[in-house]
Amino acid sequence: MKLLYLVLDGAADRLVDKPTSYEVAKKPSLDSLAKKSKGGMVFTIARGIAPESDAAVLSILGYDPHKQYTGRGPIEALGAGIRIREEYEVAFRANFATVDDSGRRIIDRRCGRTLTSEEAKELAKSVEYINLGKYDAYAKVVATVGHRAVVVIGSDKYKLSGNVGNTDPAYRKEGPISVAVKSYEPVVASCVPLDDSPEAKRTAELANIFTKKVFEALKDHRVNIERKKRGLLPANMILLRDAGNKLPKVPPISELYSGKKFSAIAEMPVEKGIARLTQMSVAEVDLLPDKRKEYSIMLDKTLTLLRENDVVYVHLKGPDEPGHDGEFKRKVESIELIDECFIKPLIEKIDLSKIAILVTSDHATPYSVKAHTDDPVPFIVYSPNITPDGLSLFSEKECFCKGSLGLIDHGWMLLKRIFQIIER
């Protein structure tokens, strides 16, 4: 039995939201699948943790982030084609952002989501290598997609540490795991060491030097001058988060699941990094402004990979962004578009007597909160050999109240449970 693993990025809301995006969305294909499925809820990492996608995705693939995670930065870097020198380089996930003339107060953490990848790469050229003037240290900036980037801080002589805090105030580190902050002061945070080691103190100091130097380099950049002329927010700051100075040491995912052959369809650097880290084969897809075209491309690649692999993991972007922006209507529409342009033609083209389907999210991004939360997310599993639960639609409430698979406390328990069900 092959398994198609669909993850709708940030699509879940909170059970207390009335209504949720899933409840309002017109998604006949997902709802039809739910009626043939068993359901449940899962904390994608654990109760009390509002995760970022990287740790959550590792978790729902079967890895315990508390034991095997070293921070998002190195995984993001791997997805962008960068391998850091362990102990002497630290990688950060980064955002181009907008700050006021003081370089401190944040106007928008993502430049209004209007920064193009081409603009970001042009900005990155001016800061692609910065001499930090201390500890024989340097910083490298690599733009990835839109406002997103990877920053590597390194030293030719001194050891560094990933155990430092974020300059992005919207996230805080709890051990290696980065957790969304529900409310924060919109000010560029000072990077602080999270232990007393000289390596952590040195790294935090260098990150703060980088923050000052990058503002000076970007504030009058020609790209930002042109953006201001067009009434757009300048990208005059780079916010850092999720530092790490080594990749996680994890077994290949095929070893976790009896030699099954896994593949992934990935758009973002972090998803590509996770797939490479866990030794899945990767089919890369560009993030496109035309979501219909993007989902069509993903569908074609999904059908191809299903012929060649035992498990195909598909990460569908769309609902997370309007969740962050608190735009309920747009989040509903994004779920409807996935249903229309990916789920519907998928079900029409595959043989449901030979393929099981698991649908869930990597985390909740409720429109009511405008951030990732620690709420459990709904999931359904379809297989031709199971007795359905009698769900009337795919939603948080239906899966919580009627789902026979209950509430799973940790994401890394989910996939093993699903294989037990579909392989009976």
Description:
Helix 5 packs across helix 10 and helix 11 (291-308) runs parallel beside helix 13. The protein has two domains: 2-69 and 249-422, Alkaline Phosphatase, subunit A, CATH 3.40.720; 75-244, no CATH class. The chain starts with a strand and ends with a helix. The chain has 424 residues and is of the alpha/beta class. It has an eight-stranded mixed β-sheet, sandwiched between helices. Strands 3, 4, 5, 6, 7 and 10 form a six-stranded antiparallel β-sheet that branches. Strands 8-9 form a two-stranded antiparallel sheet. The relative contact order is 0.25. The protein is globular. The protein contains 15 helices and 16 strands.
Shape: globular
Rg calc: 21 Å
Quote the beta fraction.
Answer: 15-25%
Pairing-aware structural class of the strands and helices? alpha/beta
Question: What labels describe this entry?
Answer:
alpha/beta; Alkaline Phosphatase, subunit A; 8-stranded mixed sheet; 2 domains; globular; 21% strand
